[in-house]
Amino acid sequence: RAAGWPPFARLAALRASALQAAHAIAFLEAARALAAGVAPFYLIYVSTPVEICEARDRKGLYAKARAGEIAEFTGISSPYEIPADADLVIDASLVSIESAVDQVKALLSS
After folding, report:
1. How far is 43 from 8, CA to CA, in rounded Å?
2. How many beta carbons lie within 10 A of that of residue 92, not counting itself?
3. Comparing C-alpha atoms, which of 41, 46, 53 is closest to residue 103?
4. Which of 5, 27, 80, 99 keeps 20 to 30 A from 17, CA to CA?
5. What pLDDT score does 17 carry?
6. Residue 77 pLDDT > 80
7. Are 90 and 46 in contact (CB under 8 A)?
8. What is the 3-state secondary structure (H, E, C) of the chain?
9. What does the pLDDT read at residue 102?
10. Partners of 46 in the β-ladder
11. Average pLDDT for 6-23
């Protein structure tokens, strides 16, 4: 896609991609360190039906994904793997934000 771009634009895009990749790797390394026992690690799954996500979507990203304007959109054109081993599952379609926060606090203080 960048083949027709001027050299400075290709370089800027390459640097931005490298920065994004480095950020993702750093995040994964931090998550692995937490999971390895350096600090407590809790997997919290906020379960929300895709219909609720779409209804709450102020930016219209779900509509764009359904129209094919956004590729690999989780829950629409890309699968979402539900964690089987979550420490806490919160159904955001059934509980208030305050209740969800209270559940997280209770888990963290246990």
Report:
1. 42
2. 16
3. 46
4. 80
5. 47
6. yes
7. yes
8. CHHHCCHHHHHHHHHHHHHHHHHHHHHHHHHHHHHHHHCCCCCEEEECCHHHHHHHCCCCHHHHHHCCCCCCCECCCECCCCCCCCCEEEECCCCCHHHHHHHHHHHHCC
9. 94
10. 90
11. 48
Q: Residue 90 CB: number of other CB atoms within 10 A?
A: 19
Mean pLDDT of the region 2-22: 49
CB 59 within 8 A of CB 69: no
Structural tokens at position 79: 């699968």
Q: Phi-psi bin for 44: left (phi > 0), alpha (psi -120 to 50), beta? A: beta
**At residue 20, does pLDDT exceed 50?**
no
| 85, 45 Cβ separation under 8 angstroms | no
Q: In the beta sheet, which residues pair with residue 89?
A: 45
- At position 96, the amino acid (one-letter code) is S
CA distance 70 to 65: 5
Residue 74 bridge partners (DSSP) = 78
Position with higher pLDDT, 37 vs 95: 95
